[in-house]
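ok so for the tutorial part 2 we go from a plain amino acid sequence to predicted structure tokens. step 1 is just haveing the sequence, like this:
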Amino acid sequence: MAAITAIELNKSSVELYPGNEEALTLTKTPEDGEGTIVWESSDEDVATVDDGTITAVAPGEATITAKVDGTEIEAGASVKVKVLEVPEFGLDSGKISAGVMYLNTDNKI
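step 2 — the prediction. this is what the tokens look like for a chain of 109 residues:
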């Protein structure tokens, strides 16, 4: 079997929110080429990667790289982890209250 001569990722950039995941798909040439793929993150405080699955950790930017071990063959994708924005409601009191209603067995509130 021949060695891997090139690799490519299905995406060159990804935008996520903390806690979200996205899987990258790697295509190698030849398809049945021999070689071990090693995944790395340039900043694991921002995003981690496990076998192509990116997990967003905290806001910032990182680069995910897939490399053929022992060679210079690699492919990368930039990751931007965005801040989750919470809309302001503009309440005068600054407090939000919520209630829960339960239905009894007679379907009455």
